[in-house]
Design brief:
Length: 389
């Protein structure tokens, strides 16, 4: 049972009632009805820790009561103990498949990366005559994370009117539109979400706004919105990737590397981020690290031509001409338009050594990096072209 904080006047009333019932409980400490009311009041007020002692006492009195078990799951969800909450909710939902349990179970499954299983729970919620908007938003996130952008976008239109004043809905839709390469729509949805959310706590809209600002080369706004997003979700790889790209555009290779390393931690399967990180290492003069990063990318997908091309650049800069030539041929065989391999060819034409003109080398690499897949989809060059007035 997830709780949305009530408005301030309602909070005052609930707090007064909580205090009153706490007095009653002193007179009747084993009253399970009072305990249930106190737990619900604590949950409604966001006082998760305060609810725990009441829960523990209630579960001693009624260890198999499903209502107390459900409240325990709510507390664990508030504490982001998703596995514990999920275990309780899975058991409860098997015996009592109601809509509140379905939604909460979908949340825990989503948080555990079980996107298809979460969608299965939400189908019951979406089949209702009056569909809870929270279930629609969660379904959009499940479809998005599961890679089904087409179905996610198809789900948006039927709820646009009902969700007109929902900042969270438009925030989620803005990121969908960005990843679907619909940049004008992404910008419109993003602006609407930010206008509705005066406290700027809409994560996806902040990521989209930062990304679009990056495309406009407005690095100050991009940095501001990525930092705001980071306050909401510090383990979001797309934010760290965006911050790294800002540093890259500022040609601060070491700082860019630090941010991109964080992005790789939180997006370990995103090969494009590893490529950009490897290039930052090359520009910082750390060829050994660049080689290790690219070899890790190669282990994930041996048929990605740009990985072989990046390794060819490292080999060429290390004076390993024969190895570089083999890697260039392999890269171009996989991707005849491969930018990294063609850059390696340029280096090999210069006798395999680092260019004497460092400034020119850095400009050439920056241009190459701009063509690479970025952490938010597409390429930075494409994004800039599409966002140009």
């Amino acid at each position: 049972m997830t709780a949305i904080p009530p408005p301030a006047p309602a909070q005052a009333e609930l707090a007064a009632r909580l205090q009153r019932l706490q007095g009653y409980l002193l007179q009747d400490p084993d009253n399970t009805h009072l305990l249930l009311d106190l737990i619900d009041l604590c949950l409604a007020l966001g006082l998760w820790q305060n609810a725990q002692p009441y829960l523990e006492h209630a579960r001693q009195l009624a260890p198999h009561d499903p209502y107390f078990q459900q409240r325990q799951a709510s507390v664990w969800m508030a504490q982001e103990n998703w596995a514990a909450a999920n275990a309780v909710l899975e058991s409860l939902y098997r015996d009592m498949p109601d809509l509140i349990l379905a939604h909460d179970l979908a949340i825990t499954r989503f948080r555990l990366g079980q996107y298809a299983a979460a969608q299965a729970c939400l189908q019951a919620c979406l089949a209702q005559p009056s569909v809870p908007l929270a279930s629609v938003i969660l379904m959009l996130r499940c479809l998005h994370h599961g890679g089904d952008l087409k179905s996610a976008l198809a789900l948006v239109q039927p709820y646009e009117v009902a969700a007109e004043t929902s900042a969270e809905f438009w925030s989620v839709v803005s990121l969908l539109q960005l990843d679907a390469d619909n940049l004008p729509q992404a910008e419109r949805c993003c602006r609407h979400a930010l206008a509705l959310a005066q406290d700027k706590t809409v994560l996806e809209a902040l990521i989209v706004s930062g990304t679009l600002a990056l495309g406009h080369a407005d690095l100050t706004l991009a940095q501001q919105h990525f930092e705001q997003a980071l306050q909401i979700k510090p383990d979001e790889g797309r934010i760290w990737g965006g911050k790294g790209l800002i540093k890259l555009m500022q040609q601060d290779w070491i700082a860019a590397s630090a941010d991109l390393e964080q992005a790789v931690i939180f997006m370990p399967r995103h090969i494009g981020t590893r490529h950009v990180l490897a290039w930052c290492k090359i520009l910082a003069g750390d060829l050994a690290s660049a080689r290790a990063i690219l070899n890790a990318a190669l282990a994930m997908d041996r048929n990605f031509g740009e990985t072989h091309g990046g390794l060819a650049v490292v080999a060429a800069m290390s004076g390993q001409t024969a190895e570089a030539q083999v890697l260039v041929r392999r890269s171009l065989g996989l991707n005849p338009q491969g930018m990294a391999a063609r850059f390696a060819q340029t280096l090999l034409a210069r006798q395999g050594n680092s260019p004497a003109d460092l400034a020119r080398f850095q400009q050439e690499v920056a241009a190459l990096l701009a063509s690479q897949s970025s952490p938010f989809g597409g390429s930075l060059t494409d994004l800039m072209q599409k966002m140009r007035p």
